[in-house]
Amino acid sequence: MSAAEQHEEDDLAPTTTPGYKPTAAKSVDEYAKLDAEDESLARWKASLGIVPGASSAPATGPKVTVLTLELASPTLPPGKKITMNIQSPADLANASKNSITIKEGVEYNVRITFKVNHSIISGVRYIQVVKRAGMKVDKLEQMLGSYGPKPDGSAYTKNFDPEESPSGMLARSGSYHVRSRVVDDDGEVFADWEWSFKLGKEW
Predict the structure, then answer these.
(1) Do 14 and 184 contact (CB within 8 A), yes or no?
(2) Residues 183, 128 contacting (CB under 8 angstroms)
(3) Which burial class, exposed, middle or buried, applies to 116 when counting CB atoms under 10 A from its CB (0-12, 13-18, 19+)?
(4) Domain 58-200: which topology?
(5) 3-class SS at 166?
(6) Where does the record place the region Disordered (predicted)?
(7) Radius of gyration of the chain (CA)
(8) What integer pLDDT is reported at residue 18 of this predicted model?
(9) pTM here?
(10) What pLDDT is recorded for position 109?
(11) How many Cα neighbours within 13 Å face the side chain of 78?
């Protein structure tokens, strides 16, 4: 691995808290039985979809499947959506090759949909590193939160904090290269892809 590649890996590594060690992963059934008499814990487990006695899917494959990434903004024209299907190699190839246009100087946010396949997730985060002409210009790191598998197997949607796109003639010249990753505290990578965008006067 070259020094540049190592630096990029360091950029995409989740922020760690000194002295923090992730606890061993538990299955949904193990969480359901844990401190069953604790009422507040029971409410928290119910919010994660953990029901005592409910059968859970076998713990095989990735804990998380990332489905889509969307750029959402109240300034988008009616009916327009900017969505990448993370499960589609063709979609990802297109997003990497053809820059998405983001309107300059507007508020927008990243929104992802994902499924939790088994176990309870915590410490999973979305990391996005933006480069221009090879130089890092921005980094976004956002926690997904704690979730358990939904009984019906449906997906969760997470809206991250809004940010404002740059503006001005200089910002509009050239394109921006983005590397996105969904990773947990143990360093397990659930999705890793590249895409690009440019700034324009309109979406």
Answers:
(1) yes
(2) no
(3) buried
(4) Coagulation Factor XIII; Chain A, domain 1 (2.70.50)
(5) coil
(6) 1-26
(7) 19
(8) 57
(9) 0.77
(10) 95
(11) 0
